[in-house]
Amino acid sequence: MNAARPFAIAKACGTVIIAAMPDYVIRTEGLTKIFTDFFNRPRVVAVNNLTLNIERGEVFGLLGPNGSGKTTTIKMLLGFLRPTKGAAELLGRRPGDTRAKKLLGFLPEESYFYRFLTGREILHFYGRLFGMKRAERKRKVDELLETVGLKDAADRRISEYSKGMQRRIGIAQALINDPELIIMDEPTSGLDPMGRADVKNMILDLKARGVTIMLCSHLLSEVESVCTRVAVLHNGRLLREGTLKDLLERRDRVQVRISGAVDKSRIADALRNIPAKVESVEAVTDSLEDVFMRIIEEERQRGQ
Asked: For a 10 Å CB count at each end of the chain, is N or C smaller?
């Protein structure tokens, strides 16, 4: 297998071309992962020629049904899996580079902790892994326990935590090093409505502070409320990518706002015949869930 290579600087006629480029935190180019059988024969194409550019400071949603390649993509970005071909960068470094990992926070879909430790001890453990000094670590641990709502349960063992509480401590450990980039896989899994609202507000606060977030979630209403751009994967291929406005806006419909006392039965008439002020004419938008289901269904129909 070919290891991922860093992106090269373009050259033309022996001259290096330096162009003004956006500040990308995550870049992939033709990223592909093919799982093989015992005889090294291709068995599953988990990720197929994926090219993504995620800019600093944005909240990017990576969407797709189960088995679409989201988790495999994350594992390649983190250096847990080597790509079959293609290239990737994380914070300007190769996947797995420790200099990038120091600036990274990661919340996996399932968090596994030492169950005999308390919530406070778990956070101190991760803080020590990042080389944090004792005073700084204590301040940050206390702050995060307050942020995720576990201040009163800080000295209980992880084995006594509910699934939602374990998810909260998982979010806290992903933030212990004040990361520049956070990758979250199903961050609200197991949380009640209040917990999901807390996570949403936390993501918006991190976004306001300039932190870049890559988010995978099946709760599309939450993705819609926090993400600036989204990408939809299916069977390892990128089907659609863009801003929420571009994806959700309907090109075939508009909605008109009218002020004043108007008989609704007359709205069917031409607007010029309605004695009222037209306040705005806007495109109709779907929900992200509607768009997602339509994209996947269209792809399935093409496959059939």
From this structure: C
Q: Which amino acid is at 156?
A: R
- Count CA atoms closer than 13 A to 178's CA, side-chain side: 9
Query: What pLDDT, in 10s, does the model give residues 2-30?
Result: 444 445 445 545 555 444 456 899 999 99
Chain centroid offset of residue 115 CA: 28
CA distances from 163 to 68, 146, 153, 168, 222 (A): 26, 18, 14, 9, 20
Measured in Å, how far apart are the chain's first and last C-alpha atoms? 32
Q: What is the DSSP letter of 222?
A: H
118 phi and psi angles, rounded to 5 deg = -85, 170
Q: Which residues pair with 243 in a beta bridge?
A: 229
Q: What is the pTM of this model?
A: 0.78
**For residue range 99-112, what is the model confidence (pLDDT) as tens digits?**
999 999 999 988 88
At 137, the amino acid letter reads: R
